[in-house]
Write a sequence for this structure.
């Protein structure tokens, strides 16, 4: 049996510029960090070698990868021509919460099955192949930041080049830096889950139209990302609150459905209670609200949003990894 895990991510600034309709014309950039919340996958050979057994929010037993309902399982198992396995999936956080869970799953699955085949693969391979699976093969209207975050781990500046390549620059943090940021960031679950597809399709179309206010706002988000990079390098972490607030106000303009009156009310209540800034994570419409808060104001924010669960978390620094490899065995062929 083999166990693998890949982390979820928190995106601070630049989301949307990792979509091809934007970066192919302008280039794009994102700053994000992974957190210690994960998707976990395990694989082992099935007793009946002709079966594929999958256990996630549903259970499937099939004979051929083409019969699998789960699109990512179907695509990856078909591409790698893997049969006779049982794969179990678990996660710390449900899907549709704005933390890049789908891409974390894809990266983890690729890592797991390459290990099952006895192959060592690089972080760049995991990230680029996950993009290939989700964007090129499954035609999901998403960007590239989530796959790279899940593969590489840590806090990074991602530059999305016009030719489709991605440059990854680690934003190195000391242990004290991480503790400082962790003590200043709070995450609240809105209780709303959503599919990002419709929002991202609209955002992609709006940006592809070119020349309008939405494209200018996306360019401004890239400028803010570059500014935030300098602040982090210079350890001026408290500027993060200001950048989050400004970027959230810009992001809301990119597509309808990114926010709604209920989310705006939650956000306003947190600011009134002393949050320095924040944003809704992911494409929008639900999931987690993130805030930058001075430690003295944490209880005020918690009280202002007392109806929302507050999630404790820390930073992840490893990215996707293989946790355990048991005895490697294969069934003997019939003589």
């Amino acid at each position: 049996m083999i166990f693998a895990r890949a982390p979820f991510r928190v995106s601070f600034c630049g989301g949307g510029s990792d979509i091809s309709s934007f970066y192919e014309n302008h280039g794009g950039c994102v700053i994000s960090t992974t957190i210690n919340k994960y998707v976990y996958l395990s694989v082992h050979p099935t007793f009946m070698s002709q079966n594929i057994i999958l256990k996630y929010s549903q259970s499937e037993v099939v004979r051929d990868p083409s019969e699998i309902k789960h699109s990512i399982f179907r695509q990856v198992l078909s591409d790698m021509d893997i049969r006779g396995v049982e794969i179990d999936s678990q996660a710390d956080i449900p899907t549709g919460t704005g933390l890049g869970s789908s891409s974390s799953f894809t990266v983890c699955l690729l890592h797991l099955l390459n290990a099952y085949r006895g192959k060592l693969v690089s972080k760049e391979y995991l990230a680029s192949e996950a993009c290939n699976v989700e964007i090129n093969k499954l035609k999901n209207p998403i960007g590239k930041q989530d796959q790279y975050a899940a593969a590489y781990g840590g806090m990074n500046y991602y530059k999305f080049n016009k030719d489709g390549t991605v440059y990854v620059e680690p934003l190195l943090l000391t242990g004290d830096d991480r503790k400082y940021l962790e003590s200043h960031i709070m995450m609240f679950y809105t209780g709303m889950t959503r599919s990002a597809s419709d929002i991202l399709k609209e955002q992609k179309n709006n940006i592809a139209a070119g020349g309008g206010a939405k494209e200018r706002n996306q360019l401004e988000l890239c400028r803010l990302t570059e500014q935030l990079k300098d602040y982090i390098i210079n350890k001026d972490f408290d500027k993060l609150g200001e950048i989050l607030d400004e970027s959230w106000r810009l992001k809301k303009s990119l597509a309808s459905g990114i926010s709604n009156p209920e989310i705006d009310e939650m956000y306003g209540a947190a600011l009134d209670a002393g949050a320095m800034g924040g944003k809704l994570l992911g494409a929008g419409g639900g999931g987690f609200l993130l805030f930058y808060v001075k430690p003295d104001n944490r209880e005020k924010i918690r009280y202002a949003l007392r109806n929302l669960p507050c999630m404790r978390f820390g930073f992840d620094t490893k990215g996707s990894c293989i946790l355990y490899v048991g005895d490697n065995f294969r069934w003997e062929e019939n003589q």
